[in-house]
Predict the 3D structure of the following.
Amino acid sequence: MIAKDIIDLLKKNFCLNWNGIHGVSHWSRVRLNGLEIAKNNGANERVIELFAFFHDSMRENDSYDPLHGKRAAKFIEELSLHFLGINQQEKEQLMTACKHHTDRLSDTSDKTILTCWDSDALDLGRVGIYPLSERLNTNFAKQDSFIKKCYARSILKP
């Protein structure tokens, strides 16, 4: 569960529409996707939850913003371990996952980071894109039935 203090901090610093395509409903679906994958592969659920809420929190617009992941990582770097409720290794995982969630430039086999990336990619239906299994990293996320489930919940309803 994400602490109210973290939500309050994110809401204070988020400059886009809180309910928009990169806002809290997206973060909540990314969290659900990630936790479902983690139940299968043993990835760190705390890091996944934090990733879900921080990864797009420093966006400056809803379109092309290639530095938003780096800004999110920098924002996380400034927060205390105690505030985040994690240790230093988990903080490093979180920062790497956020920093590279759109460019995937980090050469990693870390199941927690890969789960973070998949959890976000599985929510592309909100922008009219069906997730492709070949662009996912974890075996569970690549399952057609799971992709369909995530896609169905990601489609924004008017």
Q: What stands out?
A: The longest helix spans residues 24-41.
